[in-house]
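Pilot study result, target chain (352 residues):
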Amino acid sequence: MDMQILLVKLSAIGDVVHTLPSLAALRKRYPDAHLSWLVDEAASDLLCSHPMLNEVIIYPRRRFENLSRDLKQWPRLIKEVRSFIKHLRNKSYDVVIDFQGLLKSGVLTGISRGKCKLGFAGGREGSSIFLTHKLPRYDPDEHAVLRYLRLAYHLDSDIGEPEFPLAIGKADLDNMTQLLEDRGIGNCRILCLNPGATWETKRWTSKGFAEVADRCFERWDMIPIIVGGPGDKGLASDITMFTKHSVIDLTGLTSLRTLAALYRRAEVVVSTDTGPMHLAAAAGAPVVALFGPTAPWRTGPFGKKQQVIRLELQCSPCFKRHCPEPKCMVDISPEQVIKAVEKIGKIGRPGD
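Predicted structure:
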């Protein structure tokens, strides 16, 4: 019987992207294996219909949370949780790999039917108690991509140079092309701006993004396109208020795979430290990543031809979501970003 392997990496978008090289390594090592991935619905678009996966199991976290807020909905919640657990336990796995290392992933790993449940010792929130096989504690300063690959290597995979297999299909390319054509964009050079971030401390200034948009248009004829989720509409509006030239706003209009297709079309992506930034790097786009409260050596854009801008203040990285004076981000100058964009232009796109 073919080997059955379950990957547990629920969220977020960047974390799922960081786990893709492990998927590629496992598929190369076990070409006939049945590979399943347990993922939160928010990041599932990256994995559904992925050619390297046999099955995607979606964890409906948001649905469960919404039902739990209303006592009248608890009977429905219990019924749906039972149905989900039944589906998760429907298959017996040879190996279940907890890439997440959090309590929620640990519990789901524990619930699953696996002969070997693999992860790192010393997992956060006590998640390691659900494992049967533990690798030694990891160095928190090791990049997430390399850390996850060590789990694949433990299963005799040849990790080699990390690959980021994205399931970008013809429909995604067509959707991207249509979005651009509807806005009069043909074979123009594109600059993607990704200003959003869940942490307020990770955000750069709207004026800074606006100045970068104007100067890239004036110097290199790049058409600025603002991308992000529906919640980033306000940021996009703020940026367009400060720009001298026209800016295209695509926030809330792309799926993750359509966004990845757009990134492949882009000349440069300027982004805060957020999931779509990692998606851009995985798609092969040259990325200028702005870092402040977080550590790029842990979770920066993976690749040799990416540019990270960080002021290296004494208080950074602090890993704080809130700060009364986030100088590590607001003090980044547009000139620094423009220089990084110019440098990437001289380096060329990865793979060129």
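One observation from the pilot: Residues 347-352 have pLDDT under 50 and may be disordered. A full batch analysis is planned for the follow-on phase.
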